[in-house]
Structures are given as C-alpha cells and as structure tokens.
Design brief:
There is one protein chain. Helix 6 packs parallel to helix 9 and helix 17 packs antiparallel against helix 18. The chain has 22 helices and five strands. Helices cover about 60% and strands about 5% of the residues. Among the domains are: about 220 residues, Metalloproteases ("zincins"), catalytic domain (Zincin-like); about 60 residues, no CATH class. It has about 475 residues and is of the alpha+beta class. It is flat, with a radius of gyration of 23 Å.
Amino acid sequence: MASPLRRATRLAAATVMAVGLFAGAGEARAQSLIRDTEIEAILAKNAEPILRAAGMDPKSIEILIVGSKDLNAFAGPRVMGFNTGLILEADDPNELQGVIAHEVGHLAAGHSVRSGDMNQAGMRPFLLTMGLGVLAALAGAPDAAAGLAGSASYFGTLGALGYSREQEARADQAGAMLLDRAGLSGRGLAEFFDNFRYQEVFDQARRFAYFRSHPISSDRIESLRRKVQQQPHYLAKDSPEALAEHAVMKAKLDGFLNPQVAITKYSEKATDYPSRYARAIAYYQLKEPDRALKLIDALLGEQPENPYLWELKGQILFEFARTAEAEAPQRRSVALMPDAPLLRINLGQTLIALDDKAKIAEGVAELNKALTQESDNPVAWRMLAEAHDKLGQDGLARLATAEFYFHIGDKRQALVFAMRAREKLDRGTPEWRRATDIVLVAEPSRDEMRELAREGSTRPARQ
C-alpha cells in the first residue's frame, strides 16, 4: 500500500494504492482502491456467514477496499466494498458485521440504487492496484493516468448508492434477521448506527457519505435496538480469533495510512502483535527501513509461518532497492500461501527486476500462475509485458500490453497493441487468436474489420 498522498506518478505492483481525484456523490475527492491479501481475507471471513445466511455464494462476491477516511460501504450483486475509514471506525468485528448485514439486507430486499446502474459497481478492482506487497515506482508512467481514468465509473457508482428511509428500515430488519440466522449478535448493527446518531442533525455537506446515502433517525435506531435485543443470539460474543484479526486489520491500515499517528497510538513499549506490526509498517512508510526490518525480524522469530510478515519484509527490501535480498522472503511468502495471486505477483516483479534471463523467465511463470486466478489484473499484464520485452519476445510483449490496456478499459490502445502483436506472433497459435479476440471486441474500424475478414479472422475459431 502506498501512501495516499502520492499521486498517479507512483505506480505500485503487489502493494499499491493508485490515487487520483474522482467525482463521487457530487463532489471530487481523493480516493483509491487498495489490494491486500490479508485484509481482504479478514473482510471475506466476516462477510461469509452473513452471505450464506442470505443464500449467496461468498466466493462469487468480490471484496473491495476503498482508501478513504470517509465512512462508507456498499454491496452489489457481485461486489462488497468498504472504505478504510469505516473499517477503522468499527470498534469490533460485530459492528463491522452489522454494516455488512445491513448492506446485504438491501440486496436481499431487492432495493435499487437511487441512480446509476448497480452492475457498474461490479467492475474488478484492477485499477492499477495490487495488494500490500512490493512497491514498484514507475515515476511519470503515462499508463497510470489511463488506469485511474478507467475507474471513474466505479467511484461514480459509489456516489449513486442511496436509499429511502423506508428502505433503510427494511434493510435493518433484514440485516438483523441475517445476523441471527448466522448465529451472530445484532448488537453491533444497532450500536454502529447509534454511534453516529448525531449525523442526523448535520446538513448534507457535513455528513459522512454513508449517512447521506443511508439516512438515520432516532426512531429507526430504537426500533432496530428493540428488534435485535429480542433475538436469541443477541448475547453472542466475538471470538478471540475474530477480535485478534480485527485488531491486526486496523493496525495494518493505521500503519500504512496514518504512520505518524500510528507511531504515537501504538506504544513502543507495547508487546502485543498488532502494536508492533503497526509500528513496523509505520517506520517503513516514514522511510526508516532498518527500524522496520528489525521489528519484522523479531515478529518472524515468533511467527515464522506468517506469510504476511514475509510479504512485508520483501516489500520493504524491494522498495529500498535491495532487490536481491527481497527475493528470499517473497519466495517464502508464496510457499506459505501458494494460492494468493498477489504474493506471486510480488515475487514475479522482483525476479524480473533482477535482470537475469533465467530469473526473468521464472518471473514470467509466476505472473502467468497469478493470472490464472486473476486474469483481469492489469498490473500483472504490465509486468508481463516488461518481462517479455527483456527476453526479446516482441509479440508476447505486445500482447501483454494489449491485455493491460484492455483491462483498464482503453479499448483503442488495446486494439493497437493487439494488431501489432498479431504481426509478430505465429498465425493460428493461441496467443495469435487471443490477440485477434481483443481486436474483435475492441471496436475495430471498418478498415480493420475488412483486413480481418480478408484473412478469415472474423470467423469463430474451431474448438
């Protein structure tokens, strides 16, 4: 995760926050999409029982993390998103699950958004963001602007989400029912809204975005409280494991997003894991890598099987130009969590940066493995293009670049590079056919279509 104050001139790979100005809810504000394997896993774990209670497959829901201090959350047919400000404001897992249940309650009730298309919110969070791992600075890269522009419709959708007071009350009731059905307490649902009761007296400009689109009232909160207090699981408590994960998630976000605050908030004398984790990340963000690495090595001495600590160590080493040293911890993180594509992308990028042909070829293999799980990840395609270029594989480099542009929504550039790739690739190969597919779906001109028709490429490929 990069500092939210860094703009689009800093393009990160496996740990990145791509930042730009987007219009949302009628105003422009700096927002970002964050990818982090650990935090996504914790959020998915919180959401899973609620989604199952609603009859939804948790694996079909994409978890999005929005880097913004404002309180906001949303759920759509294929996505569920949380602002970092809301995560940090939730006192415990039960409060966060209360918000999740409320949002899923809207879906279960079939509520439509105030304006815009809910399906737009299902865009993959490919927008040049890649998980809290290695930061690769590509200063001044023109691709960054294209990637950020491609996310405008996503943030516009966030601004469009809004419901009536009647729908809010129904979502409350549905959320409370889902929590109880999942064996969870509804206490957090009522307490989260009660904590922000004062939002009702603010004018629209001063309210948190979540409460502009989800109006609250004292009557509604009291009705909800009476409902959840009568439910069988009202006294259910968060498990020690859930509480520990919640603390780690907040500590990690604090360390990356608020490093100066984290240094004070998490005492140097504290011996608990979240405090030391937050301080290690904060030192890294404050450009004190040696202090960060010292803390991480101590934590690894206690938790040698923690892939996220190895990931963070590799990230810091890579970021501070110790690329050769970054390889070993990144290999360890992948070995411990082989099914996490973001960790493989970290490793792939480091191998490519070593400028050894054998290492670059291995990096290509790692990126291809990651892309089997996240085929629409543009940062992985961008790295793959770089790797193929270093290996002198011009056709594959152009095809990977076409994929990059295709997945950030720049169809014209995707078409241009796909056409160039076709010139370099052997006709009839899977790669050549993929380049042709990109051309066909990227709105080719009439002349380009005629060219494809002459060679027979407009006909469906034989199976």
